[in-house]
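INFO worker-7 received task bundle
INFO bundle size: 2
INFO processing item 0
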Amino acid sequence: MSERKRYKIHLDPQLIEDFSEAIDAQEHITEQVSFVEKAFAKKKYRGVPAWDCICACVHRIRDTVEYLNDQTLGEQNYRSAFDFINFINNTSVVLDSVDMLARIFGVDLTVEDARTEAFHQLGDNGKGTDKKYFEFLRSLCAVHPMETNRYKGMYHETDIVTCPYLTWVGGTFLEDHWHCDLHGHAFVNESNSWGEDVCVHMDQVFAHIKYRYSLLRKIGAALERYQERRIEEYRNTPVPGCGADESEIDYIERLKNAEIERFGSNNDFVYDFAERVMAFEPTNAGNRAASERYKNAWRFALGLQLNVLRDMDRNGVGHAGVADNDTDWILFEHLIYAGCTCDELDGYDYQLEKLGYLAGHSGPSDAAWGRLKLRELEPVFRRYVSMDLDNDSDEELYMLSRIALYEIALRHDCEVNRAIPYSPKYREVS
């Protein structure tokens, strides 16, 4: 007796990584996709955002491909081929995810769905395809072995077929009889009938799986075309600068709404903080010069952000504020924190974290704790702003703290210092 055969599939994991990178390259655009294509016309969830489903498909494909590549089939010593049953069910997760992505992005797979080159099973009515035969095999062998009934006239003649077992025969004496790798039996539930043999060839199964998985390339190309089309539409939709009769607060709010439409709402809080900066007027006249420099820095950052929204591009000096940026952030996002690594702030990480308690989002107890931690920082901040820790409001102390951190950042190597122009409008120039 020859040695039993073993079977392993290899699905290129780079395929799903390339698709994932295409999503990430313009994630803000892909996030806007909804279930609106023709395939969802009769679905109750038509019109619902599809982002979570897209992410679920990508994660399922990535994890399941890794799992499938790690499986060796034909090793288990059971009468039924439970390893194949597990394999075909998990494979279906990959193929169903690929199909869902195609439907979400409106990719027509009519030609691909009609393919017969893997199994060559046209069926009794001549309408069979690789896709349908694979689904028939999964139904009969794994999902509905007691009641497979959707393929009458194609792969079975009776109303119902039943499969009691599925057995590996590859490499055994039975292979010469059945001429396949895996044998099952489809009983037709009729008197005096032995039903029909189900002969599975693993090279055909693998060929079909690899082909359907490879459709990610076509879907990825459609995704990139969608992204490019949407970006071009936004570039052709003007975003005006601040109008003569428009207040700075209204202007910032308008930019915020434009960003929500084009990039999503991740930066809402940055725009909200920019509005606070523009509305802030220090009670101590000695802080007004520093406050005005800070406002001008935000005006500069908002000007770059206007370029981002117009050009749909976050890269380069005219958008990010710096040419070489080690982070994914741009000046508009760096400025709210004005973080830098320096001796002045060394050892104050905890105190800096608790400054947020003064921002108005915490309760009285937390705000009181924030004031205590600010007292420990005040000797550092007093070089740049004057604080009355007993009488200034939480809001004033919070804003003065942000101004002080901005001034400190301008004196050390960091993204904010590299992006802000060297001008007395934005910084103290000796």
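INFO item 0 finished
INFO processing item 1
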Amino acid sequence: MNNRHVLLPAFFIGCLQLSACGGSGDAQDVDTPIPEPIVYPEYTDITASGGATTTFDAGNSGHGFSTPSVNLTATELALHMAGDKFFETSFTTAPNAEHPELDGLGPVFNNANCNACHQRDGRNSTPQVSAGQARVKLGSDAGIFLRISKAANDVCIKGDVSNDYCAPIPVPDFGGQLFHRGVLQARGDWQQNQFIGQADVYLSYDTKSVTYPDGTEVLLKKPLFEVENPYDAPGETKQSPNLTSNLLQDDVLMGWRNGMPVFGLGLLEAIAQEDILQHVDENDANHDGISARANYVFDAVKAQAGDQEPVSLGRFGWKANTPSVRVQSLGALRGDIGITNPLFPDESIKGTALHDAYLTRTGFIDTGEDENGAPEVGAEFSDAVVFYAETLAVPARRNVAQPNVREGARLFTQLNCTACHVPSYTTKTSGDIGGRAMSDSLKGQKIYPFTDLLLHDMGEGLADGRPDFLASGSEWRTRPLWGIGLTQTVNPQAGFLHDGRAATLEEAILWHGGEAEKSQIAFMNLSKNEREQVIAFLMSL
């Protein structure tokens, strides 16, 4: 059964109540045309986007993403609240004799706590370039960072142990992520570059305008980056003659990454794999121009358990490059902050010239292990912060009865946005997530995340040219849309897309290219009122 809402125009219903629409009462052999019914998609009136986990108390609150799932048990709620505390914990340089549980930051890092990149459990603030400035240097307030890797000689088709599972190739003596911050003595030239990490990163913006057929003009911006002063060649820039830094070589690929919202993640992991894979259409068999692909990635949980093929479906990250909330959360803890943990017990820069020199210079006071050889945080911290990210409630939809919102829902389907932003799933009723037992709160929930969790080529305009496992340099995972209407209520400075370039949802739509280009063109050809209706629908999510 096609579960959709059908609405007949009021004038037609009125005609059915009269002997004749003309009102004359004369018997006439006239065929009255029956208008096409207005069909609304099934999700039009849905409010509980996260099923029974949904919070209806978020409203227009600045903490709309920070509510625990409402169906947690008392024991689970206590674990969630412990994770909340840990999520906001700021770490310090080792050693910290007064609070040893807080030390271990870095020695190079991007931020000192989880909340800095996921402000109020949502997106980070987009860096602003002030009037009169050409660019801004990333500092302690930046929630954006650069992924880095070496260009491969060939496209990786299938991952196995021989090719490191198609993982990005680390930059020698740097790794796979650029850390722009450091502890005091992180660098050999620390007296001149105090609290600087592997390199300085500067951001600027390029702009272009887009004009609708009705003459409306929209200015779009794209962030550009410049990397300078790398630790292995202090003072060098890309313009320096005879470049010596490993970081500044021509075959080094770089791409911006913004922090993502962290609510509803457990529900996404609880979607059965087969329900995701049914939307794969790698060769575009249905000829709609959309060829969804799955990313298969290295799974640290499976590897730690001794699995001989530690590969899983990627679900999280901008390129679906992580398989579970556990890998995503604890990988970020070790990577973004520099805090080793049971899943990632080694520093992310272990074995690099920077780390070796730092240990020697500081007398091995910050090795990433405590006096007993244990990582900087243990299972209690790790399990709680992972559970917190798994069980943040999805906010309920708002204003669903408003005519503009309803029309926007209809147009969203008409534009074929739902080909990638798949509206709904029902989560599985058994099994585990991240190698651990799944909370009953996540089981059997009818949810409306509006994503297929798959990869799509979004065109050159959004491409960063950096592959990630099986994802190409122009492919991105479809972002879930639930809660997106509260993004700038939670953080007014937040942007959209992987690098925060879009200040509005309209701008985000206009950046869609590649497989989404047909839908983007169709959106541009709508009337101004219809475009506003689409945005009204998105704001209701």
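INFO item 1 finished
INFO post-check item 1: The first strand starts at residue 5 and ends at 7.
INFO post-check item 1: The CA atoms of residues 510 and 520 lie 6 Å apart.
INFO worker-7 idle
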